[in-house]
Amino acid sequence: METVHLPADPGFLRTVPIFGGLEDAELERLWSYTEVQRHAAGETILRQGELAKEMFVLLDGEVEIVSGDGTDAQVLGRLKKGDCFGEMAIIDIQPRSASVRSLTAVSLMVIGFDDLIRVYQFNMQTYTIIVLNIAREISRRLRRANERLAAAGLHEPSGP
Asked: How far apart are CA 101 and CA 44, in angstroms?
C-alpha cells in the first residue's frame, strides 16, 4: 500500500452516490480532509473482524468483497470505480463484516470517522447529506441481498 496526494476531481466525485447533492466546494473540502491509498492487484485491503473507523471510495480499479477465509471464503460481490465499501464502519463502528481484496491495481479515497467529524464541525448540512447517502447505500445493498436470498429460496418471512 502506498499513500499519495492527488488533486480533487469534483466532476468524478459528483458521480459517487454517497456524495449526491453536494456542491463542488463541499466536495473539495471533504477531499482535503482525506487521503488516497494505492494497492497492487491481489492485496488484501481490509480483513474481516478488524476494527474499523473508515470507509473507502474506489477512484480506480476493481475489488471483491469476501466473507470467510481459505476454502470457506465466499465472494459476496465486486465493486468498481465510483463504488464505496466499508461504509458500515462509519455508521456502527463495529469490526469489519467482510474482507476486501484488490482484483486490479486500485486507488482509494479513505474517509475516516474523524474526517466526517471535521465535516460536521464545518457544515452540519453537508455532514447530514453524506450520512443519509451512506444510509441509502446500505439500504440498497440490503435490498439486493434480500432479493438474492429470496431468489435462492433462503429468505425466511419475518414479521407478524
From this structure: 4
